[in-house]
Design brief:
Layout lengths: L13 H15 L2 H18 L2 H18 L3
Protein backbone atom coordinates (compact mmCIF):
# COMPACT_ATOMS: atom_id res chain seq x y z
CA UNK A 1 0.00 0.00 0.00
CA UNK A 2 1.41 3.40 -0.96
CA UNK A 3 2.06 6.02 1.71
CA UNK A 4 -0.36 8.67 0.49
CA UNK A 5 -0.99 11.89 2.46
CA UNK A 6 -4.71 11.79 1.59
CA UNK A 7 -5.12 8.43 3.25
CA UNK A 8 -3.05 8.66 6.42
CA UNK A 9 -4.74 11.67 8.13
CA UNK A 10 -1.39 13.42 8.54
CA UNK A 11 -0.82 17.05 7.60
CA UNK A 12 1.71 17.63 4.87
CA UNK A 13 4.79 19.61 5.91
CA UNK A 14 5.75 22.81 4.11
CA UNK A 15 8.75 20.96 2.69
CA UNK A 16 6.57 18.17 1.31
CA UNK A 17 4.07 20.65 -0.13
CA UNK A 18 6.85 22.63 -1.78
CA UNK A 19 8.41 19.52 -3.26
CA UNK A 20 5.06 18.29 -4.55
CA UNK A 21 4.30 21.68 -6.12
CA UNK A 22 7.76 21.90 -7.65
CA UNK A 23 7.38 18.46 -9.21
CA UNK A 24 4.00 19.42 -10.71
CA UNK A 25 5.42 22.60 -12.23
CA UNK A 26 8.48 20.74 -13.50
CA UNK A 27 6.27 18.16 -15.21
CA UNK A 28 3.97 20.82 -16.68
CA UNK A 29 6.61 22.97 -18.42
CA UNK A 30 9.55 22.21 -20.69
CA UNK A 31 13.21 23.05 -20.13
CA UNK A 32 12.91 25.69 -22.84
CA UNK A 33 10.16 27.42 -20.83
CA UNK A 34 12.39 27.66 -17.76
CA UNK A 35 15.32 28.88 -19.87
CA UNK A 36 13.12 31.59 -21.37
CA UNK A 37 11.78 32.87 -18.05
CA UNK A 38 15.28 32.74 -16.56
CA UNK A 39 16.61 34.83 -19.42
CA UNK A 40 13.77 37.36 -19.05
CA UNK A 41 14.40 37.61 -15.31
CA UNK A 42 18.11 38.07 -15.84
CA UNK A 43 17.48 40.85 -18.35
CA UNK A 44 15.13 42.64 -15.91
CA UNK A 45 17.71 42.48 -13.12
CA UNK A 46 20.45 43.63 -15.50
CA UNK A 47 18.32 46.61 -16.55
CA UNK A 48 17.61 47.52 -12.92
CA UNK A 49 21.20 47.52 -11.57
CA UNK A 50 24.44 49.10 -12.80
CA UNK A 51 27.60 47.30 -13.86
CA UNK A 52 29.23 48.59 -10.67
CA UNK A 53 26.59 46.81 -8.56
CA UNK A 54 27.38 43.46 -10.17
CA UNK A 55 31.13 44.03 -9.80
CA UNK A 56 30.66 44.70 -6.07
CA UNK A 57 28.54 41.62 -5.41
CA UNK A 58 30.92 39.54 -7.53
CA UNK A 59 33.85 40.60 -5.35
CA UNK A 60 31.89 39.81 -2.18
CA UNK A 61 30.92 36.39 -3.52
CA UNK A 62 34.51 35.64 -4.47
CA UNK A 63 35.76 36.53 -0.98
CA UNK A 64 33.06 34.45 0.70
CA UNK A 65 33.50 31.38 -1.47
CA UNK A 66 37.28 31.37 -1.02
CA UNK A 67 36.99 31.54 2.77
CA UNK A 68 34.45 28.69 2.82
CA UNK A 69 36.53 26.32 0.73
CA UNK A 70 39.35 25.85 3.22
CA UNK A 71 38.87 22.12 3.81
Amino acid sequence: MANNNKNNNRKMSYEEAGQKGGEKVSNKYSQEHFEEIGKKGGEKVSDKYSKKHFEEIGKKGGRNSNSNNNS
